């Protein structure tokens, strides 16, 4: 399993977000958030509950429409699409085509799996490639089977979600995202709904993806995992970026007092 065949160097920009803002009523969830992501980079978003981490992730995927700011993708789209970059200004009118184009460049792995309960594992995985990307069904099935073998779930292709453990469902969720061949993989607290003994299997898969060069943004409370896998850690609180930098620096020697307090509280995980 490898990233999309793309000749761009690792240093090439995949995504730039500028001044992302979002409010729900009087609650300002995001306040002028800037993010830069390079090809092959792993960025971990950390912070207390309600800090805006998940809203950032959903904004990058178009599941949440910001009130303002821009998101710019460079390079190629999913499935090797070479139609060029994409830039969306949320300060102007954003239509369904804009959101569809945004989603075409990334894939989300959700906290609670979000598998279709009435579909088998195989059908869950091929739904996007076949129905959205219009890829040949036989090709999508072959890719799905290869990916399931990759994560140790080849024998579960015809099972339904209710027949799987939480860890198995999350691995299917990861395969479903990979099958779309996205520029950017987004993980929203991928282990928080799992029993402790199942966390390692899912983190192991994500670690291997990082080693293979996939570009990822991961919202996580697993600070030890973030330290070993992430190139950059962004600490958020109150809808703003408090601190960012190399994982070892932010998690071992944070500069900001708020970051120090957060890391200390979870120190046993690092």
TrEMBL record:
<dbReference type="GO" id="GO:0016887">
    <property type="term" value="F:ATP hydrolysis activity"/>
</dbReference>
<dbReference type="InterPro" id="IPR027417">
    <property type="entry name" value="P-loop_NTPase"/>
</dbReference>
<dbReference type="InterPro" id="IPR030679">
    <property type="entry name" value="ABC_ATPase_HisP-typ"/>
</dbReference>
<keyword id="KW-0067">ATP-binding</keyword>
<dbReference type="GO" id="GO:0005524">
    <property type="term" value="F:ATP binding"/>
</dbReference>
<keyword id="KW-0813">Transport</keyword>
<dbReference type="InterPro" id="IPR003439">
    <property type="entry name" value="ABC_transporter-like_ATP-bd"/>
</dbReference>
<dbReference type="InterPro" id="IPR050086">
    <property type="entry name" value="MetN_ABC_transporter-like"/>
</dbReference>
<dbReference type="Pfam" id="PF00005">
    <property type="entry name" value="ABC_tran"/>
</dbReference>
<dbReference type="InterPro" id="IPR017871">
    <property type="entry name" value="ABC_transporter-like_CS"/>
</dbReference>
<keyword id="KW-0547">Nucleotide-binding</keyword>
<feature type="domain" description="ABC transporter">
    <location>
        <begin position="15"/>
        <end position="263"/>
    </location>
</feature>
<dbReference type="InterPro" id="IPR003593">
    <property type="entry name" value="AAA+_ATPase"/>
</dbReference>
<dbReference type="GO" id="GO:0015424">
    <property type="term" value="F:ABC-type amino acid transporter activity"/>
</dbReference>
<protein>
    <submittedName>
        <fullName>Amino acid ABC transporter ATP-binding protein</fullName>
    </submittedName>
</protein>
<keyword id="KW-0472">Membrane</keyword>
<keyword id="KW-1003">Cell membrane</keyword>
<dbReference type="GO" id="GO:0005886">
    <property type="term" value="C:plasma membrane"/>
</dbReference>
């Amino acid at each position: 399993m490898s990233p999309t065949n793309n000749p761009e160097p690792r240093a090439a920009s995949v995504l730039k977000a500028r001044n992302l803002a979002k409010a729900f009523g009087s609650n300002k969830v995001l306040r002028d958030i800037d993010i830069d992501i390079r090809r092959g980079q792993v960025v971990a978003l950390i912070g207390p509950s309600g800090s805006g981490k998940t809203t950032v992730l959903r904004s990058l995927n178009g599941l949440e429409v910001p009130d303002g700011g821009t998101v710019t993708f460079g390079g190629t789209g999913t499935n090797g699409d070479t139609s060029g970059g994409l830039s969306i200004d949320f300060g102007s009118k954003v239509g369904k085509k804009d959101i569809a184009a945004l989603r075409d460049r990334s894939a989300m792995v959700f906290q609670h799996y979000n598998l279709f309960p009435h579909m088998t594992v195989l059908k869950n995985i091929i739904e996007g490639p076949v129905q959205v990307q219009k890829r040949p069904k036989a090709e999508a099935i072959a890719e799905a089977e290869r990916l399931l073998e990759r994560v140790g779930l080849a024998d579960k292709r015809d099972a339904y979600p209710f027949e799987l453990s939480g860890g198995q469902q999350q691995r299917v969720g990861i395969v479903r995202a990979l099958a779309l061949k996205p520029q950017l993989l987004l993980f929203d607290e991928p282990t928080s709904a799992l029993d402790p003994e199942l966390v390692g299997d899912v983190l192991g898969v994500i670690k291997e993806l990082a080693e293979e060069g996939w570009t990822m943004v991961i919202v996580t409370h697993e600070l030890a995992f973030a330290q070993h896998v992430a190139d950059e850690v962004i600490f958020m609180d109150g809808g703003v970026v408090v601190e960012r930098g190399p994982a070892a620096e932010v998690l071992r020697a944070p500069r900001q007092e708020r970051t120090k307090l957060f890391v200390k509280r979870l120190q046993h995980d690092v």
